[in-house]
Amino acid sequence: MNEPTHAPVMCDRVVALLAPALQQPGSILVDATVGLGGHSGALLRTCPQARLVGIDRDPGALAIAGDRLADVAGRTTLVHAIYDEIPRVLADLGLAGPPRVQGVLLDLGVSSMQLDQRERGFAYSYDAPLDMRMDPTAGLTAADVVNEYTVQELARVLREYGEERFATRIARTIVGRRPVLTSTELVEAIREAVPAPAQRTGGHPAKRTFQALRIEVNDELGALRRALPAAIDALAVHGRIVVMSYQSLEDRITKRAIAAHLVDDVPVDLPVPGRGPELALLTRGAERPTQDEVSGNPRATSARVRAAERLREAA
Fold this sequence. Notes:
Layout: H1 11-18, E1 28-31, H2 38-46, E2 51-56, H3 59-68, E3 76-80, H4 86-92, E4 101-107, H5 112-116, H6 142-148, H7 151-162, H8 167-177, H9 183-193, H10 196-199, H11 207-218, H12 220-234, E5 235-245, H13 248-259, E6 279-281, H14 291-296, E7 304-310
Parallel strand pairs: 1-2, 1-4, 2-3, 4-5
Antiparallel strand pairs: 5-7, 6-7
Helix pairs in contact: 1-2, 7-8, 7-11, 8-9, 12-13
């Protein structure tokens, strides 16, 4: 298999947002979804004082990242873990507690490498076993979900994680066709369930179902809900967090987690002064890629970036 060559999404913007916090000696960047090392490599080469703690649940991605970051290996520590394990990873490395870290990056969703490896079963355009595990060494597979969940459980997954309006119809069709073991068999079931007029609009009819199954298999939204407070808590004063999401569910969770730290710690109706908000926004809403980047890199199309800087210690 050839090594993936896909460029990191919105790399220049990510570097611009995080680099100001990574200039002092001993500064630490936690790339909690290091993937193939594209963003981290750019940041380490821009910020020669910074050290990287790169986390990923995919051991194959970590191996490639290690090769790509060989020129900065002396400032790089790669860890096989899930991004909601940031506190444990930092503690294991002796980095828990003050002075904490100066930068955190979360680049969410499925990676280009995972999509391109047909045998992983992430893509509806390739015939492959239904796996979809970001960590192929452990856990539930998409085949387990498709073949073991009840109609009600399966419909809930498709509705909540895929925002699929034909969730119940698709779930019933899948259950009626069991066993469904490959991506092609799953796509056939979806095409049978989704009305023909609906298949002519909104992209591939299997897109939402595949997204929902991937999120369920990898507990992506649960991990994100746990990871964001831990990532914010790990930031030193003037440290920065950047989160890249690729669908509305991830972006909504990110927006709420950051917003919870944008308010004063004392309600305005109390006659005592507060200490002000913990975070300040660095982006106005969710920033999107430029049209030039989307033209050159279609996988950037749905990317959204939110960023914030820590202003003070937590209470």
